[in-house]
Amino acid sequence: MEQKIRHNQNIGENLRQLRLQKGFSQEMLCVKLQLYGCDIERRTYAKYESGELNIRASVLIALRKLYHCSYDEFFAGLEENKPELS
């Protein structure tokens, strides 16, 4: 049986850029996320950035507060070159 590879967009690169703009290591970010009630390990967060794992909404909410950004910044560039649905 042939297995199909699904290409799915992810926000990993945007997460990485936002983290680097704040000067945080992944480890430091995970410590800061604990203050917002998100107890995640660095290796889990690394999977968010690499696109191996989908990020939970609760983590996005905490990151938005930590970065003082809009949700749009997480999804920036993902809609480029996509046909409009009618």
Q: What do you see in this structure?
A:
The protein has 86 residues and is mainly alpha-helical. It has a single domain (12-73), classed as lambda repressor-like DNA-binding domains (434 Repressor (Amino-terminal Domain), Orthogonal Bundle), CATH 1.10.260.40. It has five helices and no strands. It has helices at residues 12-22, 26-34, 42-50, 57-67, 72-75. Helix 1 packs across helix 3. It is globular.
Please give a quick description of this structure:
The chain has helices at residues 12-22, 26-34, 42-50, 57-67, 72-75. It is mostly helical and 86 residues long.
List keywords for this structure.
mainly alpha, 434 Repressor (Amino-terminal Domain), 5 helices, globular
Instruction: Give me the CATH superfamily.
Output: lambda repressor-like DNA-binding domains
N→C terminal distance = 35 Å
Number of domains: 1
The biggest beta sheet is recorded as: none
Protein structure class: mainly alpha
Q: What would the average pLDDT be, to the nearest integer?
A: 87
Number of strands: 0
Radius of gyration: 15 Å
Strand content: under 5%
Indicate the percent of residues in helices: 40-55%
Succession of helices and strands: HHHHH
Low-confidence stretches: none
How would you sum up the global shape?
globular
Class in CATH? Answer: Mainly Alpha
